[in-house]
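ok so dumb question maybe but i'm new to this and my supervisor (M.) told me to 'just get the structure for Sigma-54 interaction domain protein' and walked off. so i did the thing. is this what she meant?? sequence i used:
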Amino acid sequence: MKIKCNFAKENLQHMEQKGKILIIDDNEDVLFALNLLLEPYVEKIKVTTQPSRIEHFMTTFHPDVVLLDMNFRRDAISGQEGFDCLEQIQHLDPQAVVIFMTAYSDTDKAVRAIKAGATDFISKPWEKEKLLATLSSAIQLSLSRKEVGRLQEQVSALKGDETIPELIGNSPAMSKVKETIYKLSDTDANILILGENGTGKDLVARLLKHFSPRSGDAFITIDLGSIPEQLFESELFGYEKGAFTDARKAKPGRMEVASGGTLFLDEIGNLPLAMQAKLLTAIEKRCITRLGAVSPIDINVRLICATNANLRELVEEGKFRQDLLYRINTIELHIPPLRERGEDILLLAEHFLNGYNRKYKKEIRGLTREAKAKLMRYSWPGNVRELQHTLERAVILSENNQLRPDDFFFPATDKSRKEDEDEELNLEKVERRTVERALRASGGNMSRAAELLGITRYTLYRKLEKLGL
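this is what came out, is it supposed to look like this??
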C-alpha cells in the first residue's frame, strides 16, 4: 500500500498541476490545511464554508473534483446535510466527481455515500498518502469522463446531422455516380472513391454514409494528407497514458470512435507502408490495439477511402500493398473532373452564387451570357473547389447586378486565357468595359471618372454617347 500511495503522489507531481478542486467544509482550519497540502499538486483550489455557495462555484469554477464534508453545523453526526449537498452537486453536474469527508467514519455511511453517487470516502483526520492517492484517482476519473463526454457529443452531433448532402449535376457522368450511390444503399461494402483534387470526394463519402444501413451512426474522417507520418498510428488506433512522452492521458483512436459507424480515410495513398500493414490487420481481424496497450479492442467499422493517386501504379512501384487495395475497393467509384461535366459547371456556378449572395448580402441576379461562356471555356484544374472559390471572389468584388466576364480572373497559363485575350482585342469592347469600371469606381461622378480614365469630361461624354452608355 505504501508503494501504491507513493506512486499516486508521484502521479500528482508529474501531472503539471492538472485538476481543479473545490473543498466544502465548515471548519476553516481544515480548509486551510487542505489548501496548503494540495496546492503543489493541483491546478487550482477553491474553498468555502457555506453550502449555499455550491451553485456559484459549480457554475463558475467548474471543479474536476469536489471534497465535501459530510457533517455541517445543522447535524453533527448523521451526515444528512452532506447528502443534501451531494444531491445539489449532481443536479448541477451529473458527471461530478465527489469525495466525502467526515470525522465520524463508519461502514454504513461509506456504503450509503457510494450508493448516492459519491466517488470515494475518506475520514478525518486523514492520512496524507491515502488522501493524495484518492485525489489522484478522482482527478483521472474526472478527466476520463470529460473526454468520453466530448467524444459522445461529437458522435451525437454527427448522428444528429440529418441534412442530406447535395450532389449537384445532371451530366451523364454525374448521373452515373448518383445511380451507383443509390445502388449501394443496402450494402455495407468498403468503397474506394477515385478522383482529382477538388472533385467532391468527401461529399460523395457523406452521401454514401447517408444512404447506407449505418446512416444513423457516427461518420468519422481522417485526412491522411495532413497528418505527420509519426502521428498516423496514434490517430488511427489511439494510445494509453504513458505510451510516449506527451501521452498524459489515454485517448481512443479514430477507428475506435467510429466503431458501429463509418470511417472515411481521405488521401489513403499517403499512408506509409508500415501503417498499411497495420491497417490491413485491423480490417481483417476487426480489432485494434492502442499504442502502449496489451489487450486488443474489437471494432466494427465500414471503411470508405478516397485518393487522387493511381493506387495500381503505386502497387507496381511497391509503394502500396496489393492486399490492402483488394480490401478497401470492394466497390470503386470514379468522380469525373469538372471539365468533363459539361453544363454542370453552370449549375454549380448558380448554386454557389445563390449561397454567396446570402452570405455577403448581395443581390446579383445570375451571370451574363458572356460570363457563362467564359466559365465553360476554362479547364478548371482545381475542379469544383476552384469554381467555388472563383464565384466567392466574384461575388465579393463585383459591383454589377449580374456577373460579367471581367468579374472572373484565371491563371494566364490556362489555354482558355488565350481565347479571352483574343476576345479582348476588340477595341470597342475593351473601351466599354474600361469606361463602365471607371463609372462604377467613381460612383457615377463624371469628373472623377474622367480623371481615372485620364481624359477630359467632354471626351468622356462623347465616349458615353458613342458607346450608348
